[in-house]
Hints:
Distance between the termini: 41 Å
CATH architecture of the largest domain: 3-Layer(aba) Sandwich
Structural class: alpha/beta
CATH class of the largest domain: Alpha Beta
Helix content: 40-55%
CATH topology of the largest domain: D-Maltodextrin-Binding Protein, domain 2
Strand content: 15-25%
Number of domains: 3
Shape: globular
Radius of gyration: 23 Å
Number of strands: 12
Number of helices: 13
Amino acid sequence: MDNRQLKQFVNLAESLHFGRASEVSHVSPSTLSRSIRQVEDAVGATLFDRDNRSVALTRAGEMFLGYARESLTQWDVIRNALMAEAGELHGEVSIYCSVTASYSFLFDLLSRFRRDHPHIEIKLHTGDPENAVARVLAGEEDMAIGARPERIPAGLAFKSMVTTPLVFIAAKDKMEFANPSGQRHGANALENLPMILSESGLARRRVDSWFRAQNVQPSIYAQVAGNEAIVSMVSLGFGIGVVPRIVLDNSPLAAQVVVLDVYPQLKSYDVGLFTTEKKLKSPLIAAFWSQLK
C-alpha cells in the first residue's frame, strides 16, 4: 500500500463516514471503499465493521490506525527534511483551537508564517479548547492551542503564548451580582448565587478546588461546553460565570457583563501551542513552532 491509501484509511477512521472521508480524500465513495478493501487485503484483517447505516473501527483497525499515523508522520519528516535541504518547504499542517484563539492569536502568527512559507497549507479546525491536548496526542492534529495542564503528558511539547487570569463575571444589569458598593466578594458571598460553569476541563477543576478550599458548596445553575457559551448565558442574567479573561476581552458581549472582584483569585491560565516531540522533528512543524518568540 502507499501513503495515499494510508491517508484515506486515517480519514475514514477519524470521520467514520464514507461520504465525508471521500470528500477530504478527494475521491469518490466507491474509490475510497475499493482502497479500504485493498488495505484490508494487504494486512489480512478487517479494519472496519460497516453496513448501510454505520461505520466502526474493529480492534484490528484501532491497532492499524496507530501504525498508519506513525508511518505518515515519519514520511512527512523525511520528505520535509529533503525539501528543507532544497531550500523550500511544501505540505500541510493542521491546527486545532477555539474560535476565540483563532482571532486572538492566529491572525498575526499565520500572516508571518504564510509570508515565510507560502507553499505550506494550513488546515484550521475549531472547537472546545479542552480537547486540544487529547487531539494532538491522538494524532488527529499536528498542533493545537490550549491551556497548559497541571502536568504535561510525556511526549508532549508546549510553548507559552500568553498568561490570562480566570475571572468571575456577572451580567451588568444584575446589580445584586455585580456588587456596586465596590466591596470584594469572598466565596461565602457566592454560595447561594446561581453558577454557570464549564462541564469539564481545567477551568472547572480550578473552580471546584477554589470552592472546596473555601469550604463552600456552590449552587450550580448550568454546566456548558465552551467559554463563549458561558459569557452568553451570563450576559442574559442567568448567573455567575467563570471564564479566562482573554475570552471575555474578545467577546462581542463584553460590554454586557462585569468582572467581579473576588478573593482569593483563581490561578491564571497559561495558554500556548501544543505538539508532540516527535512532530517537532518535522521541518514544517518546527518552522511554525519557531514563529512563537
